[in-house]
Design brief:
single chain; 81 residues; mainly alpha; two-stranded parallel sheet; 3 helices
Length: 81
């Protein structure tokens, strides 16, 4: 296990922990997605996750434009069904 505390802002450590988990799982399982706190929102980490084909989920505050955008899209999609 890697030393140190993992909390928002420790983006480099977050990648190390994910890499270690992938190594530990080996061929037994695959990490296909990960849920993270907004504190881990970092372009380098998100780009790396995308390159690893790991889907990431980050909650959005209701005051952010992206929240309203996604909310509008989901309403549109669900109302069509």
């Amino acid at each position: 296990m890697l030393g140190g505390d993992l909390f928002p802002g420790h983006v480099g450590l977050a990648q190390e922990v994910i890499e270690q988990a992938v190594t530990n799982l080996g061929k037994h399982a695959k990490i296909s997605s990960i849920a993270m706190d907004r504190g881990f929102t970092d372009g380098k980490l998100l780009w790396w996750l995308n390159k690893q084909k790991i889907i990431f989920y980050i909650p959005a505050k209701s005051s952010l434009n992206v929240y309203n955008w996604i909310f509008d899209i989901s309403l549109h999609v669900f109302l069509k069904k």
